[in-house]
Fold this sequence. Notes:
Blueprint: H1 6-14, H2 26-38, H3 44-59, H4 62-87, H5 116-124, H6 130-145, H7 149-160, H8 162-175, H9 182-193, H10 200-210, H11 213-218, H12 220-237, H13 247-258, H14 263-286, H15 293-316, H16 318-321, H17 327-334, H18 341-367, H19 372-379, H20 384-391, H21 404-442, H22 444-450, H23 453-459, H24 463-483, H25 489-515
Amino acid sequence: MSAPLPHIALQEHMQQLFRLNPDIPSRELDELFSLARETDSTHFSTFVPIMEDLLQAYLECPAKRVERLTLEEYFAFIKRSTRLLAEAGELSAPPEKATADAHSVALIDPQVTASSLDWCKIVSHAAIPKPVILAAEACQQRNELLSSVLEYAFRILQSIDLDKALAWQLAYLEDNRGDLDPDIVRDLLRAWLDLPTLPNEAFEWAETWSGDENLRNQWPHVVRLADRLLHLHALMQGQPGEHNRSSSLQHLQLILKRFPRDEKRLLRWFENAIIEIGESVHFFVTIHTHTDADWQAAALLKEIRTIETLFPPVLVLADLIVHVPNGASRFALAFFGLVGSGREKWDQEILTKGEMAVRRQFLRNMRREIGPEKTIEALCFGDGLLYNKLMGELDWLTKDFDSLRQRDKVVQALAITYTSFREGIFLATEVSKRFRDLMRVVHEDNLRRVLPPEVFEEVSQLKVLRTLATLAADARRCLAKRRALETDLESMVAADLDFIQSVRRQRLALIHSILGGQEAS
């Protein structure tokens, strides 16, 4: 008996997907994809009803029903908290009910459209029982960690006929706009990540998912996949020409050529690149110390060129840093040159100033006939272990130093504690100073004064400086709220969220400008 035709054999093998068990042996998966590649594209329409039935079976499975019930209970607490806070006048703006297409997928809160601070208040006052929170988090973890058979089915359709598969997928997304299951979106994005090119409509959907704040709050893994798809294609499309001699950009090109989907390598490159940008920004704020006009013009133009070529890929990859603990703060500090070697240099400067301040306090108290013991006690700020250790440097009888070497040893130890205690104030002052200097340097009037007319006309057209200035202002606001002593926890978290949203808006605008001109596949 002759073997069945590939499309018939593929139909039979696809029936095992209806078990909804993604743990299919690799040998059987290889056979499925092999049959899909051998199937003639004229049989594509035969597999569309199978795909539709599979999607429906997945949405009606017990796990998805439990997930919907769990999140319905979770969102009931969120809605109740929103209503009570609105009635009490605690929200900065009254909540707005979202329209049917105001969100990109289902299973997110359809009620609340609020600012970052209002959202933090709503969540913190919701009084959600711990079992409900754990159940909602379990749904989120399931979306991130578990796969499904839908990803295999999407890849099978793409193997049969890529153009028809993409057309059908985009039509399905449009028909179910606002009511897409996050697992379906996740698996579709995974299937798209392996494709070298995509139509513009696919990027538009990815931008929609990436910019959906409600989606990011509840299903962050979907947003991360959309961000990954966007930054991968944006970096490929927006690569600088081979004539660019920047070592950082050449390193990025090498990563994209050999390891385009290795996010760890991209993150390491990103962290090194923001240090380089921070050094350029630090140069901006110190350029006024040089009096040679020709040197200022040449050096300023060189740093502007560096930022012009380096900042776009850094902004495209900014989605990597916001998912790292304390990543928003690190990215904000990079705008003022306070990362990497710049931060180490500044830390050493304030430590030196701290030693001078502690030494002056010892001398001041000595003139007032106050012994070293009282000074040590005051500058230990209640640290009993440190106090006992430093008291061991004093003479047991006179309670004084035996030598200047002992005093310097105590001064160095106390300076670390003093500097740590005052670091927030020092950092706020330094950020404000560098922000003023940066705005003065990149201001149009200063650029017109320093640069030759023909160079100024070229530089004034660059959007990168305006984007840098906008994000620097947002970064300063974020850091100011984080460091203010009177700021409550909700406001601190909201400050980070506002800065992240600002970065994401600028990032999506840049990605749209890069991918918007790409011809549909």
